[in-house]
Write a structure and sequence with these properties.
The chain is of the alpha+beta class. It is built from four helices and four strands; from the N terminus they run αααββαββ. Strand 3 and strand 4 form a beta hairpin. Helix 2 packs across helix 3.
Length: 81
């Protein structure tokens, strides 16, 4: 997943960077690095676990306990500019 596709995913989901970070279990700063594609001038690769979590969230899976999944609840989240 490229930095551009990651940013497009977040925007398509209607998420602020902070909301995406919370849903993915990351710090907002990591979301910013992923969207920029770099950190301190060095290339940043989005880990497979994050890419898979993006897919799960996109398909409506909010959590998975190994047996059952729960639906994603985006109530109260708003898109940023």
């Amino acid at each position: 997943m490229s930095a551009t596709r990651f940013r497009d995913w977040r925007r398509a989901m209607g998420l602020k960077q902070k909301d995406a970070a919370d849903l993915l279990g990351l710090k907002k700063r990591m979301i910013q690095y992923y969207e920029k594609g770099a950190r301190d001038g060095k290339s940043v690769t989005i880990p497979k676990s994050v890419r898979l979590a993006c897919y799960a969230l996109k398909t409506g899976v909010g959590d998975y306990d190994g047996e059952h999944s729960s639906k994603l609840d985006l109530t109260g989240l708003t898109e940023d500019e």
